[in-house]
Amino acid sequence: MRLVSVKHVESGATLGRDIYNDSGQILLFRGVALTDRLKARLVGMGIYYIYIEDEMTEDVVIESVIREDTRHKAVQTIKEEFKAISVETKLNKTINLDHLSKSFTSVIDSLLKDIKENQDALAMLQEAYVHDNYIFTHSLNVTVYTLGLAMKLGYSSKKLNEIGVGALLHDVGKVSVPLEVLNKPGRLNDDEYEIIKTHAMAGYDMLRGVPNIPLLAAHCALQHHERIDGSGYPRRLKGEHIHQYAKIIGIADVFDAVTSHRVYRKPMLPHEGLELLYSGAGQIFDKKLVETFRETISIYPIGLTVKLSDGRMAIVVKQNKQMSTRPVVRVFNENGQRIKHYYDIDLMDYLDVTIVETEATLASVK
């Protein structure tokens, strides 16, 4: 399968993967022939990149990091718990989250199991999902990235559970934000942004006294928008005054935010999101954590068309978990000409060859 831009995919191309909603229902089945009408529908649903069937890559299998049943259960748990908290908050009731610890621990255990079984770097390209509510899916994605990074750092089981709960609940304070601001279909003005910023303290206040919820989870909600140069919020904390968990979740939060579809902009591809993080590495993000994050995620998704430093065009066909910047690629174009017999090269074996450009916007390259 190849990864292409919906905007540039040729009519008649065959969809390579099912498109799901957050409830696990298939909205569009693989194998359907894409028409202009279907392409417009996909863009309307917030799908900008899709996998299509392709003879040259018919042997390439796209494995999901998180199994569908794990994803569905996790999103439903987050949705139910956040909605319950929202109701209790609006009624000015004391929030009772005693049961939440058990339900979220179960989710975290399932996520850890799937991540550990995954043989490649974390690939979470959101081309196959249509989201009913951004916050629920975002909370799940941030948790997956957070757990992956924490595992790479060698965290113990206890710490993985703590930071996992903190990641799942990092945005819980947004249940107190007015829906007209939270769901505004466009960029926020200054006043609206100030309202959004209150979710960090609100989340902390909700979580800090709840039995069976680690106090550190409350600090994750409070600090995940703090930045090491003091430019973050709500307390403008600097450097070591920010808890390590919050620094990790902050990186995962930004990466997922920019690589996910929003009403006012299309998503970045993973390598673009990573470039954004690197632009702030050492200033607003911990540089070592960003570097470890790079080693954790799949920068170039399988199926992506890339240009190599020697001018050859190729398609990513396999990840190297040891170094996600150097995947296995299938060369199909040399000197500007499509070759009859394509071949694979492992960029780990050719250190003088690098990926210099991605061509996700091209459905085909001659």
Automatic annotation (TrEMBL):
Lineage top rank: taxon: Bacteria
Regions crossing the membrane: none
InterPro entries reported in the protein's UniProt record: HD/PDEase_dom, HD_domain, HD_GYP_dom
HD-GYP domain ranges (all copies): 113-310
Domain HD: 135-258
Pfam families on file: HD_5
PANTHER family assigned: CYCLIC DI-GMP PHOSPHODIESTERASE PA4108 (PTHR43155:SF2), CYCLIC DI-GMP PHOSPHODIESTERASE PA4108-RELATED (PTHR43155)
Protein name from the UniProt record: Uncharacterized protein
Organism: Alkalihalophilus pseudofirmus (strain ATCC BAA-2126 / JCM 17055 / OF4)
